[in-house]
Specification:
The chain is α/β, with parallel strands linked by helices and 287 residues long. The protein is 47% helix and 19% strand. Bound molecules: ligand C2E and magnesium ion (MG) (3 copies). This is Diguanylate cyclase/phosphodiesterase with PAS/PAC sensor(S).
Length: 287
C-alpha cells in the first residue's frame, strides 16, 4: 500500500510539472504574437524629487492584456520572455516607445525603462539605443535604464564593458531592486550608475516600530552619496513612509502615495494640470 501511495505522489508531481511546462509554453506562444497584435502597452509611474515635490520623470512598466481580456502580470511573463529570448524584440519595442513618449513630454522630464539580464547581455543593445535616441530626437540623458542587481550574478569583464558602452550612448543608468540580490559592493564602485533604486521590500512598513529597514535604507543612502549617486525609494505608500525616507535622505520617491502606473494620456493630462508639481495623496495601504 505504501508503494502505491508513493506512486500516487509521484504521479501528482509529474502531472503538476507537466501542467506547469505546458502553461509556460502556451504563454510563450501567445507572447510571440502579442507585439504584432498590439496587446502590449507601457504604463508610466511618477518619480518625484522629494525636496521640491516635483515630478522629474516616470518609470515605464509593461502591461499585457491578452485578446481574451485576461491581464498577465509582468512578473509572470517577463521571465518567460527572458528564457525564450522574446525579450529582445519586446525590449526594442519598449525602448522605442519610451523614447517617443519622452519626445511628447518635452525636455524637462526623464523616462526609465527596465532592462532585463538577457537584454543587457545582447551585443546589439547600444546600437538599438542609439537608433531610438536619434529617431526620437530626445537628449540621451532623458532616457534611463534600470538594471536589476541580478545582472551582477556574473561579475564578468563583459558586463563592465557593456556598462561603459551604454554610458557612452549618453543614457543614464540606475541599479534597480537594490538590496535583493548579491550586492557586489566593489563592483558597484566600478559601474557607472547614476542612481540606486531601493527595493520596496525595505520601504514598505519601514516606518513601523522595531523595523530594521530604516537602518538598511540609511546605509544605502550613505553608500549612494559617497558614490555620488541619487537614490529612489520604491513602494512609498503612506505619509509615514514618505516622512521617513525624506528624513533618511533619499533624493527621490516612487510609489502609490504620488501615483500608480498610468497610461500615456493620463500622464500627459497630469503634467498639463500640474506643471509637474505634486502633492502626496494619503494612499490607504492594504497592508
Ligand atoms: P520594478 O522595476 O521594481 O517595478 C516596480 C514595481 O512596483 C511595479 O510593479 C510597480 O507597479 C510597483 N509599485 C510601485 N509603487 C508601488 C507602491 O507604492 N506599492 C506597491 N505595492 N507596489 C508599487 P509591476 O508593474 O507589476 O512590475 C513588476 C516588475 O516587473 C518590475 O519591478 C520589473 O522588474 C518587471 N517589469 C515591469 N515592466 C517591465 C519592462 O518593461 N521590462 C522588463 N524587463 N521588466 C519589467
Ligand atoms: Mg524598475
Ligand atoms: Mg524597482
Ligand atoms: Mg522591484
Amino acid at each position: 500500500a505504501a508503494k502505491d501511495a508513493g506512486r500516487g505522489v509521484y504521479r501528482f508531481y509529474a502531472d503538476a510539472m507537466h501542467n506547469q511546462a505546458s502553461e509556460r509554453k502556451a504563454i510563450e506562444d501567445a507572447l510571440r504574437d502579442a507585439l504584432a497584435k498590439e496587446e502590449l502597452k507601457l504604463l508610466y509611474q511618477p518619480i518625484v524629487d522629494i525636496a521640491r515635490e516635483r515630478i522629474t520623470g516616470f518609470e515605464a512598466l509593461i502591461r499585457w492584456q491578452r485578446g481574451d481580456g485576461e491581464a498577465v502580470s509582468p512578473s509572470k511573463f517577463i521571465p518567460i520572455a527572458e528564457e525564450s529570448n522574446l525579450i529582445v524584440p519586446i525590449g526594442e519595442w519598449i525602448i522605442r516607445t519610451a523614447c517617443d513618449t519622452i519626445a511628447q513630454l518635452g525636455p524637462g522630464y526623464r523616462v526609465a525603462v527596465n532592462v532585463s539580464p538577457r537584454q543587457f547581455a545582447n551585443d546589439r543593445l547600444p546600437a538599438t539605443l542609439m537608433s531610438a535616441l536619434s529617431a526620437s530626437g530626445i537628449a540621451p540623458a532623458q532616457l534611463e535604464l534600470e538594471i536589476t542587481e541580478g545582472v551582477f550574478l556574473d561579475e564578468s569583464p563583459e558586463n563592465l564593458e557593456m556598462f561603459q558602452r551604454l554610458k557612452r550612448t549618453g543614457v543614464r543608468l540606475a541599479l534597480d531592486d537594490f538590496g535583493t540580490g548579491y550586492s557586489a559592493l566593489g563592483y558597484l564602485k566600478k559601474a557607472p550608475f547614476d542612481k540606486i533604486k531601493i527595493d520596496q521590500s525595505f520601504v514598505l512598513g519601514a516606518a513601523d516600530k522595531n523595523s530594521m529597514n530604516a537602518a538598511i535604507i540609511s546605509s544605502i543612502v550613505g553608500l549612494a552619496s559617497a558614490l555620488r549617486m541619487e537614490t529612489t525609494a520604491e513602494g512609498v505608500e503612506t505619509h509615514d513612509d514618505l516622512a521617513l525616507v525624506r528624513r533618511l535622505g533619499c533624493s527621490h520617491v516612487q510609489g502609490y502615495i504620488y501615483g500608480k502606473p498610468m497610461d500615456r494620456d493620463e500622464m500627459l493630462a497630469l503634467l498639463r494640470g500640474s506643471d509637474g508639481q505634486v502633492v502626496a495623496q494619503g494612499y490607504q495601504s492594504a497592508r
